[in-house]
Amino acid sequence: SGLVPEFWCPSARSSQRDQVLTAFVMGANAEQLSAQGDRAVRTALSELDALYGGAASQRFQNAVVADWLKEPYIRGAYSYPV
C-alpha cells in the first residue's frame, strides 16, 4: 500500500477526451506527501504506474496540487480517525 489510498476520476462519464484524476489523501500520508513538495506528484504517479503497468506516467500531462495542510486558515481539508 502506498501513500495515496484513493484515486478517483470525477470526469469519467464526460465525453471529453482529456480526463481529470484526483488523488485523495488524509492524515499521516497527507503530511508525508506535503513534506515532499514537488515530488508528491511523482510519488502519486509511481503508485499509479505500479497498478497500471506504467500507463500513468506515459499519459501524464499536468498536475495541480491543492495542499490544504499549507493553507494557514484551513490546515487540512477533512477530519480523520487517528
Account of the 3D structure:
This protein has 82 residues and is mainly α. It is 35% helix and 7% strand. The protein contains 3 helices and 2 strands, in the order E-E-H-H-H. The chain has helices at 27-36, 39-52, 55-59; strands at residues 6-8, 22-24. A two-stranded antiparallel ribbon has the order 1-2. The radius of gyration is 14 Å and the shape is globular. The mean pLDDT is 86.
The major β-sheet equals:
2 strands, antiparallel
Mean pLDDT across every amino acid position: 86
* Count of distinct strands: 2
- The CA-CA distance between the termini, in Å, is 18 Å
Please count the helical segments. Answer: 3
List SSEs in N-to-C order: EEHHH
Low-confidence stretches: none
Decide which structural class fits the backbone: mainly alpha
Mind telling me the C-alpha Rg?
14 Å
Oligomer designation: single chain
> Looking at the structure, what is the overall shape?
globular
- Bin the helical content: 25-40%
Strand content: 5-15%
- Spatially, the strands of the biggest sheet line up as 1-2
